[in-house]
Amino acid sequence: MDEELRRWRDLTDLDPDTLSPRRLDWSRKPEAFKRYPDRPRVPLPRPGVLRTPRVDLWDVLARRRSRREFTGEPIRLETLAALLWACQGVTARQGPCLLRTAPSAGALYPFETYVSVQAVEGLDPCLAHFDVAGFALEILEQGHHGRRIALAALAQGFLDRAAAVLVWTAVYPRAAWKYRERALRYLGLDLGHVCQNLALAAEAFGLGCCPVAAFFDREMNQVLGVDGEEEFAYYLAAVGPLPSPRERIEG
Predict the structure, then answer these.
(1) What are the φ/ψ torsions at residue 232 (nearest 5 degrees)?
(2) What is the pLDDT of residue 4?
(3) What are the domain boundaries of the chain?
(4) Whole-angstrom Cα distance, residue 195 to residue 235?
(5) Most buried among 12, 46, 221, 244, using CB within 10 Å?
(6) Domain 38-250: what homologous superfamily?
(7) Are 222 and 153 in contact (CB under 8 A)?
(8) What is the pLDDT of residues 52-81, one digit of tens each?
(9) 169: alpha, beta or left, given left = phi > 0 and alpha = psi -120 to 50?
(10) Which residues of the chain have pLDDT under 70?
């Protein structure tokens, strides 16, 4: 283990000999989620009316693979809504916390979800932010952003051919308020839960899904319009229709 990694491990380590209780300063607690109130909104079909596949969980787990061979064909807005709900749908309220489909340390959910809408029926291509509490998309910028995202992700061209790309940012102060330096460990764990939910939901719909962690940080932050300091790009995943098995074999 090199010295830099050892310092990071020591900085984020919990030690019973040095751990001391402390009071949380609730007056300084960051906002639980982000909103763009001045941007156009697209309400999403609510979970109660979504038509979702009736599949066996164990079968979906066995079939899940990272798939990149997208056809470029569109998905329905209802399908995108179901995928977003699988990632971050609100399932209950506990005090001030909106509990969701994926677990998060301290129920803090220190991340935000952005969507590059590229081929979704009834929705023009755009870059949007997912409003968790309102279950809606907030349109940040019109136009097809697939090529910009693909170039920022080391020219992985399949991102440009996906129906949608979900990009998650980490909002470090939201976790550090409670967990201080150890929050660094929890960011990746939390988003791993979220992305696995997306992968399983996409598989249930018969769609491809491929997570991506390789990207140029500054360029991806610029695409999203985030500061790269308190909020920064952390993980992304593409989803979209796949060619038929015969087409995949012969093509």
Answers:
(1) -150, 150
(2) 75
(3) 38-250
(4) 9
(5) 221
(6) NADH Oxidase (3.40.109.10)
(7) no
(8) 889 999 999 999 999 999 999 999 999 999
(9) beta
(10) 8, 11, 14-21, 245-251
* C-alpha span between 131 and 162 (Å, rounded): 22
Q: pLDDT tens across 200-220, in order?
A: 999 999 999 999 999 999 999
Write down the residue that tokens 């979970």 correspond to: 47
Structural tokens at position 148: 């910009």
| Helix pair angle (183-204, 172-179), 10° resolution | 130
Please tell me the predicted confidence (pLDDT) of residue 52: 84
* pTM recorded for the entire structure: 0.91
The structure tokens listed for 119 are: 């081929």
Tokens 């989803």, located at residue:
239
- For the chain, the C-alpha Rg in angstroms (whole number) is 19
Instruction: Check: CB of residue 127 under 8 Å from CB of residue 80.
Output: no
From residue 48, alpha-carbon distances to 5, 41, 91, 123, 193 in Å are 46, 20, 11, 21, 23
Position 183 scores a pLDDT of: 81
Count of alpha carbons within 13 angstroms of residue 207, beta-carbon side: 28
Q: Is 128 exposed, middle or buried (0-12, 13-18, 19+ CB in 10 A)?
A: buried
Q: Can you tell me whether residue 110 is helix, strand or coil?
A: coil
Tell me, what amino acid is at 216? F
Q: What angle do CA 137, 188, 201 make, to 5 degrees?
A: 50
The CA distance from 124 to 143, in Å, is: 7
Cα separation of the two ends of the chain: 44
For 6-21, write each residue's pLDDT tens digit.
Answer: 876 776 776 665 556 6
CA dist list (Å): 186 to 84, 144, 180, 211, 250: 21, 32, 11, 18, 43
Alpha helices in 205-230 (DSSP H): 217-224
